[in-house]
Amino acid sequence: MKLDNIEHVFFDLDHTLWDFDRNSELAFKEIFEKQKITIDVEDFLQVYKPINFKYWELYRNNSVSKETLRFGRLKESFTALKFDTLDATINLIADDYIEYLPKNNHLLEGGMELLNTLKDQYRLHIITNGFEEVQHKKMKGSGIHDYFETITTSEEAGVKKPHPQVFQVALNKSGAEISKSVMIGDNLEADIIGAHQFGLRVIHLSSSEQTVQDQYPQVQKLKELLNYL
């Protein structure tokens, strides 16, 4: 069912448009080879992904710093895999990850086609909790930076989604009216519940791994967004 009276479309970036999982795996493969880490990357990622998710939840809730997130998620993953490595090496891997991650430019299936369809009909924007220093690089590298009129990061706003101030900063930058705007994202708490409580209309991009059924409009593929827009 089409949403009426929409002029501004706000997207999350990671896991919504930018294929974080695929690009992250490619970055780790390159880093492990460089640092001579002898763990199979797929085995590492199986342990790392839930730990990384936990650390991002803590980061959103201001329970850990950016530095603790970057170090802790790696340290805990190596410990769980019983792989002995020096803290100095973990810090090198953490630095390499921030450098290597935005060099990989894969979008989720249908991402570019969607943006090409929407760009002449709506004003497009990004709201992201990702680190300021890498989000712009990701977007430029993947060729989508110029599709968006504004890009609002949590570091710029001073708080993270789902805090209402992030959405307010994004609206102020864009000049958008809340009644004429929609937020699209993959994270139920940060993107969808946060935006909905702020007053935005929302569409949840729910991956096939997520079985949660919620009260919000939901799609599993980016192309399905055209059923609403």
Q: How would you describe the overall organization of this protein?
A:
With 229 residues, the chain is α/β, with parallel strands linked by helices. Helix content is 48%, strand content 11%. It has 9 helices and 6 strands, in the order βαααααβαβααβαββ. It has helices spanning 20-35, 41-60, 66-80, 87-100, 111-118, 132-141, 154-157, 164-174, 188-198; strands spanning 8-11, 123-128, 150-153, 181-185, 201-205, 218-219. It has a 6-stranded parallel beta sheet with strand order 3-2-1-4-5-6, with helices on both faces. Strand 4 (181-185), helix 9 (188-198) and strand 5 (201-205) form a beta-alpha-beta unit. It is globular and about 55 Å long. The model has no long low-confidence stretch (mean pLDDT 93).
| Integer average pLDDT | 93
Tally the beta strands.
6
Outline the biggest β-sheet.
6 strands, parallel
What overall form do the CA principal axes indicate? globular
**Roughly what fraction of the amino acids lie in strands?**
5-15%
Q: Which residues sit in consecutive blocks of at least 5 with pLDDT less than 50?
A: none
Please estimate the helix content.
40-55%
The helix/strand series, from N terminus to C terminus, equals: EHHHHHEHEHHEHEE
Separation, N- and C-terminal Cα atoms? 9 Å
Structural class: alpha/beta
Radius of gyration: 18 Å
- Please give the order of strands in the largest beta sheet: 3-2-1-4-5-6
DSSP summary: helix tally:
9
